């Protein structure tokens, strides 16, 4: 069954979500995919995984249509490491509705999640040493920017109520991208869930939009201090440089696919419940009707906003500095239909949920002027998106 715009309201789609489904709510639409009609096959040669994936996505959509699917779309997630296997499939049924993010939405009440144990990987001290390593690589001329991240591993007293967590994230994330998708392996079922503020790229008809974010400040509960931080961010040489590196990279990556590109000279501000971000909206027209949203996303992933610059050197440095596998964190999650339309979101402000365990992620962009203690505080603020949605009181934990 396929229901088009206006057939089902957004709240019903959110209520109808079950673990294992694909769900995404954007400022423009809500999509719920159920079941698996066809998997996008992975590439046996890991080195060619990302190179071949756009072709495999296009072929899977074509096959699904030939086999009678009334409206095939590919949904799911792609990991940060381009050599790792993506989790992409065509759902059996796809339901669309307009987004009601900007309209009133009542807060979902739920009991706070009880935490047995919370471990920071790496420890805060080790993370700051990693930031120092990144700064050294930048000052030596090896890198222009690098993103250093850390994770929080939570052990809970009860299994994660994923549908409830998704409701809470959707309530809090009225202007971003709320998502949940299955990233099950052969060993266990795991849900990737989050509320990202960052659009990697969208394609509608012949028009494409990318919205890189880089340069951040934690929000303050004090309105005066909150506005001071916003103004400071907008004039910060360090953050403006970090942002400029990302925007230049995004524009260069999209230039082979787009014409009449619009790249604003100065960034603007966007806000979430927990953070201020520098934002630039890059627009353009497709050079060819065959270019899909997934083609564009694959060309962009990963941007310096989540990796660094130059990309391959930064990615190698990340593998040396970070003592954990990012998995799908800082990858991309989204959808692409047979006409090439779609939306792909940078997978940040997210967690991997499995039974009694949750693994949260947060990173910070490092440039030559970065200070380790400030970057640690930034990652702690970014964790709050997921922690607040779970009702977790973080005061009892020193490692956040």
UniProtKB/TrEMBL annotation:
The protein's UniProt keywords, in alphabetical order, are: Isomerase
> Where is the Chorismate-utilising enzyme C-terminal domain positioned along the sequence?
125-382
Q: State the signal peptide span.
A: none
Which EC number(s) does the record attach to this protein? 5.4.4.2
| Reaction catalysed by this enzyme | chorismate = isochorismate
Q: Which domain of life is it from?
A: Bacteria
NCBIfam families per record: isochor_syn, PRK06923.1
Give the similarity note.
Answer: Belongs to the isochorismate synthase family.
Q: What is the name listed in the Swiss-Prot or TrEMBL entry for this protein?
A: isochorismate synthase
* Source organism of the structure: Solibacillus merdavium
